[in-house]
Amino acid sequence: MQIESNSVVTLHYTLTDNEGEVIDQSEDDSFLYLHGAMNIIPGLENALTGKSAGDEFTVKVSPEEGYGEKDPERIQVVPKKMFDNMDEIKQGVQFHAQDPDGNQVVVTVVEVQDEAVVIDGNHALAGVELNFSVKVVDVRAASEEEISHGHVHGEHGHQH
Ligand code: ZN
Asked: What is the CATH T-level fold of the domain 72-120, as seen in this structure?
């Protein structure tokens, strides 16, 4: 069957940046998702529509269809004393914070200065072109329960 809304899709994928560095890849056959439920980035989901088990393809996903462009407003300089309760504050350290809309975001320390710290609340892959190499392993229809929950159940999927 072809991938359409409410298909449960099993796939292999490898994600690389434009330099060919592997950013992420599926483990074994275990990446499953519910198609049409916005569980994966739009650029990859759109490319999978209409594909069938056994199909292999590559797709380049722009930041707009991926994790978005880098938002300069999410890069901030804050007083170093805000980090007094952290053990170690250095470049590359990540922590969780709330953005102005109340969403949980991962913030990365970009630079530590004498009195201030530069932090970046953008997604690590914001502004990055994503190159997916994909093999569709299996396609099946979702159950009513999966459709109502908006995610996959069962082996390798979401457990209750
Ligand atoms: Zn569920």
From this structure: Thrombin, subunit H (2.40.10)
- The reported pLDDT for the residue numbered 83 is 85
Residue at 114: amino acid letter = D
Q: Which of 44, 58, 57, 68 is nearest to 128 (CA)?
A: 68
- 4, 84, 104, 111, 117 from 80: Cα distances, Å: 50, 7, 21, 11, 5
Cα-to-centroid distance, 32 and ligand 1 (Å): 14
Model confidence, pTM: 0.78
Residues with CB under 5 A from ligand 1 (ion): 149
CATH topology of domain 7-67+126-149: Chitinase A; domain 3 (3.10.50)
Provide the residue ranges of all domains of the chain, joining segments of one domain with +.
Answer: 7-67+126-149, 72-120
